[in-house]
Design a protein that fits this description.
Layout (H helix, E strand, L loop, with lengths): L27 E9 L9 E6 L2 H13 L6 E9 L3 E9 L4 E7 L2 H10 L3 E8 L6
Antiparallel strand pairs: 1-2, 1-3, 4-5, 4-6
Length: about 130
């Protein structure tokens, strides 16, 4: 059984571009990540969801995250937002069995944190309504 080290870094940079998210369907965003029931895992999973309300965004993120998991594992919402953008990079290092996730204000920053830690990552995220990406 391998114990997994989970890392969380919330970046505070304000880099953004001039692309705007549209519509009230993205009024809220949420990030959900898994937490193994058994206390051990060979990976980490997570997803982002959006909705008209905080609850709807959370439910969307949870459903998206749960769809990635095997039975016996569950997800939890770790962040919700209704202004700005958030991105989560999720990955592992297969040689060390170390996994982690990083939350940042933009996609490049999320990927950079993950790469810096030597993990092979996927980045998910986006912006809430009327927020810059």
């Amino acid at each position: 059984m391998l114990r997994i080290l989970c890392l969380l870094i919330i970046a505070t940079s304000s880099a953004s571009s001039a692309v705007w998210a549209q519509g009230s369907e993205r009024a809220w965003g949420a990030i959900a990540l898994n937490g193994p029931v058994s206390g051990t895992d060979a990976g980490v999973a997570g997803e982002v969801g959006f909705g008209r309300t905080r609850q709807a965004a959370g439910n969307s993120a949870l459903a998206n995250c749960q769809a990635l998991l095997k039975p016996g594992y569950s997800c939890r919402v770790v962040e919700t937002f209704n202004k700005g953008c958030l991105y989560v990079s999720i990955g592992c290092n297969k040689e060390s069995a170390r996994c982690g996730y990083f939350i940042a204000l933009n996609k490049a920053q999320a990927q950079a944190h993950c790469t810096h830690e030597g993990l092979s990552c996927h980045v998910h995220g986006g912006c809430a309504s009327a927020a810059r990406r």
